[in-house]
Amino acid sequence: MQRQSYRFPHDKGSSAPLRQDSDTSDVQASFVMKCGGSTLAALPEAFFADLAQLQADGVRPVIVHGGGPAISDNLEKLGIPTEFVHGLRRTTEEVLDVVEMVLAGTINKLIVRRIQSAGGKALGLSGSDGSLIQAEPVANAAEVGLVGDVVRVEADIVAGVLSMGYMPVIAPLGVDAQGQRYNINADTAAGAVASFVGARRMIVVTDVPGILKTVDGVKAALPSVTFAEIEDMIASGEIYGGMIPKVRAAMKCLHGNVEEVVIVDGSEERVLSRLLSGEAIGTTIRR
Ligand SMILES: Nc1ncnc2c1ncn2[C@@H]1O[C@H](COP(=O)(O)OP(=O)(O)O)[C@@H](O)[C@H]1O
Ligand SMILES: CC(=O)N[C@@H](CCC(=O)OP(=O)(O)O)C(=O)O
């Protein structure tokens, strides 16, 4: 069971306001989209054209991205050993140097440029900027090192960027009050951003067309899954590896304003606009 380390601004009894009174208070993220490292290189121009068109039509997406494979490639090139413990990269200060360089640098700027090339307006941020993602060590820090859980996301910053007409593109790094930086799993970070900005929907863009299950010998994406089915599929090994942090982040963020999480394949044609126009694509998880 994951720790519930952040409180949900929209839950009853929460003392944390979504954002302070400000002239951005009416600016609401339309959805939070997590783009996985598994799929980033393969995302076609058409994906970014679709995203830019949505923005031009007044939709306000917020992007949180991964980059696990690129981090591993760079660590390997530098001869720095790397390993995952329960899906989290064991992270030292030396590893963090590379994580920060790749996520906040190479990958973040690549996504910003691709959105801009498609005619959109994007602004890259890491979780350290403006203390956007405030973190604390994960419960198993003794095993995994400088990996963070999200305590709070500065929703005002996201609203401010949206109010300027830019799409925030967020790298999943965190920082604490002492200035210590943390490596945060991108699915975890995206779920926390969705909770704190009060988006109705989180879209998880990955390299598979949803949560796959073999039924009567046929492997296909489930149109929807309940929390109980997810737990059963994790226990049986039908959900494993990189799908585990996605479903865990989904179940954790489905509180307050977040009503649904959809897992989709980014290479599917016009996947975002089709989803937004109500088409059933991928796997949907609801409360
Ligand atoms: N039941 C499942 N359905 C679909 N994919 C699954 C399932 N269980 C595990 N996976 C794995 O999860 C992977 C997606 O996670 P990951 O590679 O971490 O992607 P990303 O980089 O997008 O976060 C899939 O490519 C697949 O190998
Ligand atoms: C703590 C931890 O494991 N952090 C991840 C952050 C990147 C990530 O999550 O990227 P994907 O979405 O592409 O997997 C890592 O170091 O790989």
UniProtKB/TrEMBL annotation:
GO molecular function annotation: acetylglutamate kinase activity; ATP binding
Top EC class of this enzyme: transferase
EC code(s) of this entry: 2.7.2.8
Keywords: Amino-acid biosynthesis, Arginine biosynthesis, ATP-binding, Cytoplasm, Kinase, Nucleotide-binding, Transferase
Catalyzed reaction equations: N-acetyl-L-glutamate + ATP = N-acetyl-L-glutamyl 5-phosphate + ADP
Pathway: Amino-acid biosynthesis; L-arginine biosynthesis; N(2)-acetyl-L-ornithine from L-glutamate: step 2/4
Keyword Cell wall biogenesis/degradation applies: no
Pfam families in the record: AA_kinase
Site residues by UniProt (Transition state stabilizer): 34, 246
Naturally occurring in which organism (per UniProt): Saccharibacillus brassicae
Any single GO CC term annotated in Swiss-Prot or TrEMBL for this entry: cytoplasm
Positions of the UniProt region annotated as Disordered: 1-22
Compartments where found: Cytoplasm
InterPro entries for the chain: AceGlu_kinase-like_sf, AcgluKinase_fam, ArgB, Asp/Glu/Uridylate_kinase, Glu/AcGlu_kinase
GO biological process, one term: L-arginine biosynthetic process via ornithine
Residue stretches making up the Aspartate/glutamate/uridylate kinase domain: 31-265
Family per record: Belongs to the acetylglutamate kinase family. ArgB subfamily.
Keyword Nucleotide-binding: yes
Gene3D superfamilies referenced in this protein's UniProt entry, alphabetically: Acetylglutamate kinase-like (3.40.1160.10)
Residues annotated for substrate binding in this entry: 67-68, 89, 183
Lineage, opening ranks: Bacteria, Bacillati, Bacillota, Bacilli, Bacillales
Name recorded for this polypeptide: Acetylglutamate kinase
Name of the gene: argB
Domain of life per record: Bacteria
